[in-house]
Amino acid sequence: MVVMEIPETSQAGHPGRTADDGPHPADGGTGLTRLRAAVRDAWDGLTTSERAVAQYLAGAEAEQLLFASAQELGGASGTSNATVVRALQRIGYAGLPALKRDLAADFTTSVAPEVRLRQRIAHVGQDLRGIWDDVFNEAEERIGHARRLTDTASFQRAVAALAPAGEVFCYGVAASELAARHLALMLARTGRRARFLGATGFALADALLPLGRGDAVVVFQPGRPLDEFTVLVERARAVGAKVVFVTDELGETFGGRIEAVLTAPHTPTGITAESLTGLVVADALLLALTTLDETRAVETSHQLTALREQLLAPQPKSRGRRETP
Question: What SS3 class is residue 241?
């Protein structure tokens, strides 16, 4: 097999990144040009079946790859889903989610939201079995990618920052609000002081006033670098509070000024909820913190159960006239 002509572009390599990152926007060009450059660079070391996958990927449009599963790409290239994953790894990506993550950055900025919605609807059609599979396939891909992208050391740093905190401030806006509210609620149920923050603009100033030494902040945000994050991080540094980011793209922006970054890949297609991976990361943090103070967690759970039982106590029966059977 002879590889198709692929336009010349910049090299896919980028010093200072792990193998899990794959080609990166900083390397120049679009996601497709980076993909084609990676295929060209790795071509000589690919097997025949891997070349079939690589050739198909290099010739496809971005939206075709964004909405495709590994199984669909395997069928289109005459190979298998396992070969697709293996070929992507040989090219330089951690897997299909990593490729979609790179392509999505260009796709979402250059294509209007209503156009992306029409394309998403056109892709899934009205095939209910296919819709069911598409949602679960993307959810599985995103969660698996999140699992691989955050190493144990980063998770340990995040837990170490939150464990001694006097109060945990959980910040999230828009689609990230759900994960932030979830973490704040569940931390409180384990006996830890926690609150949700979702203010923007001037209102955030009031919300940040209670933040003090010994507290911690968990910021949920996939990628948009809002001004509020800079203010929040600087306030935390000024008062002696610690910060953990749960994000997809902001690690490089804030990584040097905070305690830990946990990666929560955003959705490249909009098929699954943006907050999905953030919720899973929040659950991991919650379980880790619960195990560090089992006594407090169990006692708080007991109190919560007692309060619920009081609120759900049966109401006294009315003394109305008995009905004749």
Answer: coil
**Averaged pLDDT score across all residues of the chain:** 84
Q: Are 269 and 120 in contact (CB under 8 A)?
A: yes
Is the full-model pTM beyond 0.70? yes
3-state secondary structure of 248: coil
Please state the rounded mean pLDDT for residues 256-276: 89
SS3 content of the chain, % helix, strand, coil (to 5): 60, 5, 35
Distance of CA 299 to the CA centre of its chain: 32
169 closest CA partner among 256, 262, 232: 232
Per-residue pLDDT tens over the stretch 239-248: 999 999 999 8
Q: Are 106 and 31 in contact (CB under 8 A)?
A: yes
Taking the CB of residue 38, how many other CB atoms lie within 10 A of it?
A: 28
Closest CA to 179 of 275, 249, 287, 274: 275
Which tokens sit at 140?
């599985």
Is 52 in contact with 78 (CB distance < 8 Å)?
A: yes
66 close to 103: Cβ distance less than 8 angstroms? yes
